[in-house]
Amino acid sequence: MTTINGYEALARMRALRHSDDFFFIMQHLTWQERRCQTDGIRVVRRCRLRPALPDDSMEPHPDLFLPYTDLDAAKVNQNRICRKRLVRYVAFPPEFEMLKVDWLTPKIDGKAQNLND
């Protein structure tokens, strides 16, 4: 399976944000703050990033969260939010090949650096 840097994944998600014709697939861990545990993986088959809404509760800091819209017709464009670092896999058009998201590769001077190189 191909791996993608977390920063590159976010940049590609943002690039698709302004087009009504494009979406991406995402798999992320869910998190229950009250119980401090995960409920497993959520698969979102058609999603697009969205701006944060005033009623989104993003504590402690909004940069840690990824607001998105679930475009599945059964969910009627449901607004959701997840922690960025809990995103595990993404797939982008046109191939929609699942890419594993590597959050441990640091971003240095605006460019992702691979520690294994």
How would you describe what is shown here?
This protein has 117 residues and is mainly beta. It has one domain. The protein is globular. The C terminus is likely disordered. The chain contains 1 helix and 9 strands. The strands form 2 sheets. A 7-stranded mixed beta sheet has the order 1-7-6-2-3-4-5, covered by helices on one side. Helices cover 9% and strands 43% of the residues.
List keywords for this structure.
seven-stranded mixed beta sheet, two-stranded antiparallel sheet, mainly beta
Q: Helix and strand layout, with pairings?
A:
Elements: E1 3-5, H1 6-16, E2 24-32, E3 37-49, E4 65-70, E5 78-83, E6 87-91, E7 99-102, E8 107-108, E9 111-112
Helix vs. strand class: mainly beta
User: How do the SSEs run, as a string of H and E?
Assistant: EHEEEEEEEE
* Number of E strands: 9
Number of helices: 1
Mean pLDDT: 84
**N→C terminal distance:** 19 Å
